[in-house]
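To close the chapter, one final illustration. This time we ask the reader to focus less on the individual chains and more on the assembly as a whole: which components sit near each other, and how the overall shape emerges from the parts.
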Amino acid sequence: MGQSQQIVNGMDDSPRGKLLSAAARLFREQGFDRTTVRDIAREVGIQSGSLFHHFPTKEDILYAVMGEVIRFNTERLRQAIAGTHDPVQRLRGLIRAELQAIIGDTREAMSVLVYEWRCLTPEHQKDTLALRAIYEQLWMDTLEGLRSHGRLRGDAFIIRRLITGMTSWSSNWFDAHGNLTIDQLADIILERVIGERTEDA
Amino acid sequence: MGQSQQIVNGMDDSPRGKLLSAAARLFREQGFDRTTVRDIAREVGIQSGSLFHHFPTKEDILYAVMGEVIRFNTERLRQAIAGTHDPVQRLRGLIRAELQAIIGDTREAMSVLVYEWRCLTPEHQKDTLALRAIYEQLWMDTLEGLRSHGRLRGDAFIIRRLITGMTSWSSNWFDAHGNLTIDQLADIILERVIGERTEDA
Amino acid sequence: MGQSQQIVNGMDDSPRGKLLSAAARLFREQGFDRTTVRDIAREVGIQSGSLFHHFPTKEDILYAVMGEVIRFNTERLRQAIAGTHDPVQRLRGLIRAELQAIIGDTREAMSVLVYEWRCLTPEHQKDTLALRAIYEQLWMDTLEGLRSHGRLRGDAFIIRRLITGMTSWSSNWFDAHGNLTIDQLADIILERVIGERTEDA
Amino acid sequence: MGQSQQIVNGMDDSPRGKLLSAAARLFREQGFDRTTVRDIAREVGIQSGSLFHHFPTKEDILYAVMGEVIRFNTERLRQAIAGTHDPVQRLRGLIRAELQAIIGDTREAMSVLVYEWRCLTPEHQKDTLALRAIYEQLWMDTLEGLRSHGRLRGDAFIIRRLITGMTSWSSNWFDAHGNLTIDQLADIILERVIGERTEDA
DNA sequence: AATGAATGAGCGTTCATTCAT
DNA sequence: GATGAATGAACGCTCATTCAT
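The assembled structure is written out below.
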């Protein structure tokens, strides 16, 4: 209840989906290494040995969580800019979408993506990095679009890193029950990027 | 060479200091949970059992690393604003100092502070939080000073969180051997905070 | 090709027969303990759970393999001495038959019989021992016949054990594609038993 | 008591030695796969985790057992032929020594050597094979010496295999408390090899 | 202070077996 | 008969911690 329902495609009501949701939450709360397969199994209501009918290793659960959440949020990014041509509005859409991912519906898994990265095998890191590259390319295309309209000062690469820092850190302080809304925070961040109040436009 | 010498007071050439330096590096490279006491002992050149003459538990080593680095960087923050009264220059000093902490000399331990937080016992989290509060108060005082000079738009608390995000994330991408210097990055961030190019003033 | 077709009665083309053949081969290649029911099921093309419609436990598969191969080779022994009255020729027949069992068509299962003996339950060991007793009696009768013709020196029991050693160990070195034939080896062993070159007679 | 004291050099009263003796016995009684590290630990009177201060893996215990027993029995073979020049007496010495190894003081470990071979890693199989080659060379040299004195009919390689079969199988039937002594059995086997009663010499 | 063997709880994983479909 | 998800006990192994020396 207080626990928002995960809406990632691969994390549905199927046994596998419930398993991934539970794992994502536990990985975020306790960390990957401190979460035992027995913890996950208990959460899902099965025996620990049964986990291995769904995933060959514990690390594969982590890998699946990360893959699902990146794919889902890449799609969210696409929809955020679909049908919008104004570069500022596209950027605003991306920021909102990323905040939604980090402090909204997929926050557990997104946190895991940042904090448990090194728990992936090198092989899986490489695969997951390839997925992230697609996600990041959407950002870079949008920022370059912004620049070609003269609305971006500075290096797009650095700007993207600063945005990543601002959005990803928000998971550590944003209070979903506080006064600040995600949209308001998005506008505050947008202002830091393009250097003016967007509501004046 | 590539390995910067740690300069934190409590992490000096004494057995305890070398132990903390080694632990900080290993915790950052492998994570706290994946670093064994044997790893640390080997690095320092003693047997694993001997570690426990210096620290009662492995977690206490983590606690000590975090405490040392916070105390050291709090002092660095103090020196960064000492003797400067211009609020923008004070802010610039803080940003520079924090970047220095995160991607400069104390980067190993700072990374540990962020990524291994939940490996602390609740008790130690509370104690460490108290140290961070002192550190954060220096930031809040400076930001409020900035506001009273009319140089800050928006909520100081939120601004500080955005700065924290930008600086802390830089450990994931800043290249000490690249073209961008710490001072340049500090100015770029400063610009995002006060909304104008500072060097043009 | 290199894999000789098992010809044991109970190991025919029926599902049960194919299962026993596959199990015999796997037990010999990997050992009983290292062969999983999934290995066997995969070989036969069914799911592991379906094995248990044919055999109540994995150990029962081993028991069945052993029973089948002993019964088959006991019959082979009988045929080897059927219609022959010369005691030396009878002995030669037994040796040839046992070598055929050990390094010829039933070699997989015979190897299992030796190497996986202790994987049988005590109960099944007893039952299987009773089958072996019949097999061994054919040997003892023949050896006593040899003695009554004055062609055997020494204790028949010991002689039989020495023959068993020579024949059973041959599975570890005999090369079906080498120069030595089974019949030649049989004569060499025969010579060790009756103390003279049989072909010179 | 009924359990003969192992006398292999590396299996002495040290913790490591007692561990190897216990492991050899359990491996022989139950097989390597069915012997748990907890079984071994219990036998030695330590906790299961403590095993791993002595050997990195369970398989390394097996490897050590095999290495120790081969080295010990190779030395025994050497002493059996030392100072003897008569080829028949040398052969008799080897047979006695091998029987002593198989059914006497090192019988547990020798049995393991035969029955648990495939439980070794391929790497360790190779290493152990190299040790066995030294052992076997002593046999081949002696058999060739016998041939050069005109006392050996047949292929030395095959003869050695037949001897190996006779001696190794004896572990399955020889009764240390029965009427037959090891020396008597050695002479019976010797007779099978050189084709005449040795006591007539 | 330092050693290093020992502890023992706990880990990820395996696998023969069961059973609802 | 066949399926395949689930079971649950047991496995080899790890590692922070202890303690006699």
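Residues 57-200 of chain D form a domain with the Tetracycline Repressor; domain 2 fold (CATH 1.10.357.10). Chain D has a mean pLDDT of 92. With these observations in hand, you are ready for the problems at the end of the chapter.
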